[in-house]
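sry for the spam today, last one i promise. struct tokens for design, 556 residues
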């Protein structure tokens, strides 16, 4: 077994545990798993778990399973199953063997429940939901034993068989573990391990009308798959007692090197919701366009917005793995994608709020083509062709009739350099009846093509542009944070912290080379930000670009 090189990858408490387990011979190899519930799309918090579980398996030459903990058919859907597989692959990971499902083990789980009944450690309880809550007690008061707790083994076996055969209504009864109603840990107060659900299951169809609870299923599934290190977030810390209790009391799992659970802090990210229930509510109420809305923190949403797998993996590595809960600044995620795209995204020009410019001393009807670098620091990306003519479009914010020393753009009577092209001088402008500038008239210096901005000519700034006749009409979706509060989960309702300006749509023009821009491939639109063609709505005849992230630098 090849151990991880701690000089290459930062260590953490989980890796320290694994190093010790391998050193002492407790485990000869490492087996992890990523166990999502298929009741929603994966989000950035799941990316941390994916990178941890698959990353550890990779670094220790071990294996990682993808297992769907599919114990709640009412909230699960095959669409979620498919999207989760696609997300894991997109992030750059591949699971060992076939996809696994907890439902693969339903027959065995049923037999283990029967084993607990035979041992006097499980019973069928007929308390309704309200009565069960009342009997459970509080954090300060112990619970009370159910009046059905001392039913005989024989009767419990018969009742459980009747549950299995559909002889009771939903909610009429449930199978509970017999542990300790006075335990200081609520999860140990005779938790339900099987309940009745007359629901169609996406894997097992209508074979079952009883379904095991997550806490009963998860530990057994881990043990059956010989998982060595079961990694989960801190909210399952108390549940580790139930995890161990179940395995401690089943004959098949008494080996000293059986699976153990270890908890790490979940990802809490500013301005972001991590609750699948709350995210599903946004989708259901059409407050976003779907699970893959680019404002959503889902992996599908981030992908559609132009985030790269490498940037998300880098983010997960930077935040690290600890037991301490903390709130991560959203700027750290922004920095990861900016750094990635600054290095790898090709450059292009787009004008989001166009203003017409006529270059009066340029030959009318003439078009010339300028070769511009696709990336200023990477010759391997090649070049792109820019059309230039008498009429161009610039951003409306890049012209003023009068400007101060801080305004380094186009001003009447002053010069500015067009990116990759000529120096132009503003002579005058036209306005409409409301005083809005509609057209700027300029002259250009034909000797300045390709000249360096530092060639001695006193030009105040550089602006971007597109040639009017060849530029392609495009819609630009300017995405901002979905929430106005750094901690939206703390709000009384989601609606009160929704950002009304989380999406602003503008119509502009893009340079012609972008007509066949691949979906989800990010470009740096010079002086505007990083954008990508939308994977659902963009086409060569209807260009739609999503803002991935704004530029770090200001061009004021």
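last one done:
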């Amino acid at each position: 077994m090849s151990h991880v090189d701690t000089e290459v990858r930062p260590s953490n408490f989980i890796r320290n545990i694994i190093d010790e387990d391998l050193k002492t011979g407790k485990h000869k190899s490492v087996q992890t798993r990523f166990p999502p519930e298929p009741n929603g799309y994966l989000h950035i918090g799941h990316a941390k778990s994916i990178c941890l579980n698959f990353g550890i398996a990779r670094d220790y030459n071990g294996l990682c399973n993808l297992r769907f903990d599919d114990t709640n058919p009412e909230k699960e859907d095959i669409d979620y199953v498919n999207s989760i597989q696609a997300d894991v692959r997109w992030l750059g990971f591949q699971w060992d063997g076939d996809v696994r499902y907890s439902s693969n083990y339903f027959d065995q789980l049923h037999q283990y429940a029967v084993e607990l009944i035979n041992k006097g450690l499980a019973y069928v309880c007929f308390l309704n939901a309200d009565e069960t809550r009342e009997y459970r007690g509080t954090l300060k008061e112990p619970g009370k034993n159910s009046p059905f707790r001392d039913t005989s083994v024989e009767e419990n076996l018969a009742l459980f068989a009747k549950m299995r055969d559909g002889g009771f209504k939903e909610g009429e009864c449930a199978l509970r573990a017999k542990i300790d109603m006075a335990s200081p840990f609520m999860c140990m107060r005779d938790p339900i391990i099987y309940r009745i659900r007359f629901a169609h299951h996406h894997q097992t169809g209508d074979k079952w009308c009883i379904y095991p609870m997550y806490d009963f299923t998860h530990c057994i599934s881990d043990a059956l798959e010989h998982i060595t290190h079961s990694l989960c977030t801190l909210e399952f810390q108390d549940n580790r007692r139930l995890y161990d209790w179940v395995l401690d009391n089943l004959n098949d799992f008494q080996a000293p090197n059986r699976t153990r659970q270890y908890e790490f802090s979940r990802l809490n990210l500013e301005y972001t919701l991590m609750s699948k229930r709350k995210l599903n509510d946004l989708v259901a109420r059409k407050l976003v366009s779907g699970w893959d809305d680019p404002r959503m923190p889902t992996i599908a949403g981030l992908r559609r917005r132009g985030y790269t797998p490498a940037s998300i993996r880098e983010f997960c590595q930077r935040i690290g793995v600890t037991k301490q809960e903390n709130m991560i600044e959203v700027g750290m995620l922004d920095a990861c994608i900016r750094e990635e795209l600054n290095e790898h995204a090709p450059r292009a020009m787009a004008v989001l709020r166009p203003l017409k410019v006529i270059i009066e001393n340029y030959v009318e009807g003439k078009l010339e083509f300028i070769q511009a670098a696709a990336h200023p620091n990477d010759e391997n990306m090649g070049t792109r062709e820019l059309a230039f003519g008498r009429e161009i479009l610039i951003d409306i914010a890049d012209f003023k009739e009068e400007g101060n020393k801080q305004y380094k753009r186009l001003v009447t009577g002053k010069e500015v350099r067009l990116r990759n092209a000529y120096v132009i001088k503003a002579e005058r402008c036209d306005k409409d009846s409301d005083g809005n500038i509609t057209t700027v008239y300029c002259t250009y210096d034909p000797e300045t093509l390709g000249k360096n901005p530092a060639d001695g000519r006193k030009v105040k700034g550089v602006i971007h542009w597109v040639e009017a006749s060849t530029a392609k009409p495009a819609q630009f979706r300017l995405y901002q944070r979905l929430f106005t509060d750094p901690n939206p989960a703390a709000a009384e309702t989601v609606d009160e912290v929704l950002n009304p300006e989380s999406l602003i749509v503008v119509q502009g023009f893009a340079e012609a080379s972008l007509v066949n821009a691949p979906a989800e491939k990010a470009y740096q639109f010079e002086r505007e930000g990083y954008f990508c063609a939308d994977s659902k709505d963009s086409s060569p005849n209807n260009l739609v670009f999503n803002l991935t992230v704004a530029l770090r630098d200001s061009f004021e």
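Residues 13-264 form a domain with the Rossmann fold fold (CATH 3.40.50.620). ok im logging off now
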